[in-house]
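anyone else get weird line breaks when pasting these?? whatever heres mine. first is seq + C-alpha cells for prot A
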Amino acid sequence: MARLTAGTAYNPIMGDGSRGVIHVIIADNETVTLSGSVAGGTYTNIEVFTATTLKEITLVPYMKFTATDGDSAGSVASTVDIDETRGK
C-alpha cells in the first residue's frame, strides 16, 4: 500500500493498466481531486471525491491528488491510499 502526498506524483509499481484499490478519507470538509497522467506532464482529473470512498480503479503511470482548503485552512487533512491489487 502507498499513501499519496498531496500534489506529488506517484508512480504505481505494476505499471499502467493494472488495477488497484483506492481509499480516500475525507477530512476537514475538503474536496479531493484524483488526477492522472500517461507521461507525467499534463494531468487530467480522474474523479472528484467529497465523501470517504473505497473503490477499485485502473491505475495510470502517474497519479496525484489535490485537496481544497477545509475548515482548518493551511494544510491537507484528507488522505489517499492506493493498494495495487493485480496486473492487467
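and prot B, same format (seq, then C-alpha cells)
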Amino acid sequence: MSEKQNYTIAQWFQALATGFQNAGNALESRIAALEKRIEDIEKRQGIAKEDTSASVTETEDSGHKIAFLPGPTSLGIFDNAYASPKFMEGVSLYRFEKRDGKRASVYVENRPCVVKAFHNDPSSQYSACERTDKYFPKATGIKTINPGEATFDGEKWRIDRKVEIEYVV
C-alpha cells in the first residue's frame, strides 16, 4: 500500500470514529430529554418513582404477603427488584408467600405460560426446584408437591429448600 492509501484509510477511520462519537452524543442528549419528559408527566399525574430497594413488592392474599418473581440465578437467588404484586405472564414463574420479614414459602405457579417457560428454558427451575417425577414434554401443568423455603437478605431472596414439583399430563 502506498502512503497516500494509508493516509486515506486513516482519514476514513477518523471520520467514522467522529461520526460514532457524534451519534453517541446525540443519543445521550435525546435519552436525557426523554427522561425529563417522563419525569414531568409522572409529576403531573402524581406517579411516584418505584422504590424496590428495601422491601418486597407485596399484596395481601388470605393473610399472606404475596410476591411473584421470575426465575432465579444458577445459585438459587431471586432479585427482589423484579418482584411484582401481580402475576405477570411471560415474566412471573414463582409465587412467594412471605411469613415474616425474612422468610417465605415458594411455589411454582401452575399456569400454561409457566409450563411453557419451563419447557423452553429448563434452567429456570434447576436451582429452585426438585422434580419428583420424570420430565414430560407434553405436560400441561406443574403441581407443587412441597413448597420451597427462601430467606430474604434485604435485597435478594435465597432458596434454602427447593420447591418439589411434578408435571401434570
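btw re prot B: The chain has a mean pLDDT of 80. The first strand starts at residue 59 and ends at 61.
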